[in-house]
Amino acid sequence: GASSADKSSDFLECLTLQFQKSNSESDSIYTPQNASYSSVLQSSIRNLRPASNSGQRPSVIITPEHESQIQAAIYCSKKHGIQLKVRSGGHDYEGLSYISETPFVIVDMRNLRSISIDTENNTAWVQTGATLGELYYTIAEKSKTLAFTAGVCPTVGVGGHFSGGGYGMMSRKHGIAADHIIDAKLIDANGQIHDRESMGEDLFWAIRGGGGTSFGIVIAFKVKLIVIPETVTVFNVTRTLEQNATQIVHRWQYVADKIDENLLLRLFLRSINSSNGKRTVGAFFTSLYLGRVDDLLQIMQDKFPELGLVKEDCTEMPWIESILFFAGFQGKSRDILLNRTRDSIRYFKGKSDYVKQPIPEYGLKNIWKFLNQEDENRAELQFSPYGGRIDDFSESEIPFPHRSGNIFMIHYGVGWSQEENAKSQRHINWIRRLYSFMARYVSKSPRAAYFNYRDLDIGMNNIKGNTSYRQASVWGFKYFKNNFRRLVHIKNKVDPTNFFRNEQSVPPESLW
Ligand code: FDA
Question: Domains of the chain, with CATH numbers?
Answer without folding.
Answer: 4-110 (3.30.43.10), 232-319+343-441 (3.40.462.20)
